[in-house]
Amino acid sequence: MATIKIQKEAIPIVKSGLAIEENILKLSLDEYKKDLETFERKYKMPREVFIQKFESGDLGDGAEWFDFLFAYRAYEHVKKKLKLIGEILI
Length: 90
Known about the structure:
This protein has helices spanning 11-43, 47-56, 63-86. The chain is mostly helical. Helix 1 packs antiparallel against helix 3 (63-86) and helix 2 crosses helix 3.
């Protein structure tokens, strides 16, 4: 774990910035989740099955799969960022 030194007066600014970022990420996560659910219904395939089939090459390289892949990877990326924010102790 890394330590960052912040002047006491700056703590509210840092907390506020993190809260704003967290809210933006939560909104993004909700949108990507809706996109994933749409793709899952459309292709009748859960995201975990999709990513396994896509990465193994079973689905080919059609453009529609890359939209599903983007939504999946964006969702996972935002989840990781939210987890990191949640682990910040101030």
